[in-house]
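Hello,

I think I submitted the flavin mononucleotide job twice by accident. Can you confirm which output corresponds to this input? Input:
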Amino acid sequence: MARAVVVYRSHSGVTRRYGEQIAAFLAGQGIAAQVVSVGECDMSTLASADYLLLGCWTSGLFVVRQHPDEPWLAFVRDMPALGTAAAPGPKIALFTTYKLRTGSQFGRMRAALAGKTAAPQLELKSRNGRLSPTDEKALARFLV
Ligand SMILES: Cc1cc2nc3c(=O)[nH]c(=O)nc-3n(C[C@H](O)[C@H](O)[C@H](O)COP(=O)(O)O)c2cc1C
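Support: Only one job matched these inputs. Its output is below.
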């Protein structure tokens, strides 16, 4: 059975809910999906996962300078490099929640992950933390 880990950083709960809905969708696709906050994540479980979905709420000045917050960045700094040339690590997706504009959020998340994981193949974003039908289609394509 394929295994997915959904790791989120949430300030007030919306990104946690989005991560939980992502994990529930993955479970419905027959994947063993675990959802944990950055603080709860056991780093040793990541390299052997088939899919790793990393989420962080959007912080910034609402129209400019969006970025993942320090606890998410610290999590990525502490994370071991996942995968080698011989054994590629998990397939990576990013997700965020926001109110107005995600701007540079995904770019900053990708920059933090560079050299640690494979390039992310999916970016999902939500204003309300609910998985939309469009998100579900994108996730289903990501799994293939
Ligand atoms: C300090 C602060 C900065 C924020 N900056 C942005 C922003 O730049 N762009 C945006 O669209 N939303 C911004 N938001 C809204 C949050 O990204 C949004 O409410 C998000 O869903 C919160 O997720 P959480 O409940 O998981 O913490 C900001 C919220 C806070 C508290």
